[in-house]
């Protein structure tokens, strides 16, 4: 029983806790970048009008013919700086996630194998004897899959934000930057269990089906013996 608790609960819990922290940070960053993209055009206009107000208060007068050109230049320069900053932060988050997955690829795979074996053994042992371990082990699998699904959803939201950032109002250079960002965003952020399967809600349901299938097969075999 002690060994079962250690393998089914303690080891996976430590790996999961670290993944939740890092993946949660990455997910939050992606959601923040998505919000920034959605409001980028409006923020650029507000920044321009703020500069106009400050210059007017300082006694500076504008030529209407020049003002339109300056407006477009100022707005697009603001957008360019923020797009470059978003690209850098997006790349940083991608690299962080890849490094974490490279380090913990084997650990996640081992965790899932242990959890699947542990859950199957607990079912064979009878729920009346393993009613404490069962919910915890299922929660471990669910939390890993929920973490992976959160990253996928955040990446999809970032991709949608690129479409919704009013890029049609940008100049050609900024449009090209958005196109580059869109191509990069289509490389979906994912966490995998040793490269075998991508952690998501679909993965969670597949694991539950696998555990139940293994349990019914072993139970029927044991009943025949």
From TrEMBL:
Keyword Methyltransferase tagged: no
Membrane-topology annotation of the record: Multi-pass membrane protein
GO biological process: signal transduction
Localization per Swiss-Prot or TrEMBL: Cell membrane
Transmembrane regions: 191-215
One annotated Gene Ontology cellular component of this protein: plasma membrane
GO MF assignments: odorant binding; olfactory receptor activity
Highest taxon above the source species: Eukaryota
Keywords: Cell membrane, Membrane, Olfaction, Receptor, Sensory transduction, Transducer, Transmembrane, Transmembrane helix
One protein family per Pfam: 7tm_6
The keyword Transmembrane is annotated on this UniProt entry: yes
InterPro entries attached to this UniProt entry: 7tm6_olfct_rcpt
Protein name: Odorant receptor
Species in which this protein is naturally found: Eogystia hippophaecolus
């Amino acid at each position: 029983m002690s060994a079962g608790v250690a393998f089914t609960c303690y080891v996976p819990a430590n790996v999961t806790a670290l993944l939740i922290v890092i993946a949660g940070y990455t997910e939050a960053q992606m959601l923040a970048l998505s919000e920034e993209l959605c409001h980028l055009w409006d923020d650029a206009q507000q920044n321009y009008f703020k500069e106009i107000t400050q210059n007017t208060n300082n006694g500076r007068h504008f030529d209407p013919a020049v003002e339109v050109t300056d407006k477009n230049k100022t707005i697009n320069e603001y957008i360019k700086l923020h797009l470059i900053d978003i690209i850098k932060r997006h790349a940083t988050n991608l690299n962080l996630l890849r490094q974490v997955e490279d380090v913990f690829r084997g650990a996640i795979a081992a965790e899932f194998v242990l959890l699947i074996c542990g859950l199957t053994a607990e079912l064979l042992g009878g729920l009346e004897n393993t009613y404490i371990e069962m919910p915890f082990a299922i929660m471990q699998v669910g939390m890993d899959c929920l973490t992976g699904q959160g990253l996928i959803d955040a990446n999809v939201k970032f991709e949608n934000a690129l479409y919704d950032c009013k890029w049609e109002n940008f100049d050609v250079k900024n449009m090209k930057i958005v196109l580059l960002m869109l191509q990069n965003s289509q490389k979906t952020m994912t966490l995998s269990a040793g490269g075998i399967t991508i952690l998501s809600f679909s993965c969670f349901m597949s694991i539950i089906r696998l555990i139940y299938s293994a349990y019914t097969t072993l139970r029927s075999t044991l009943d025949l013996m």
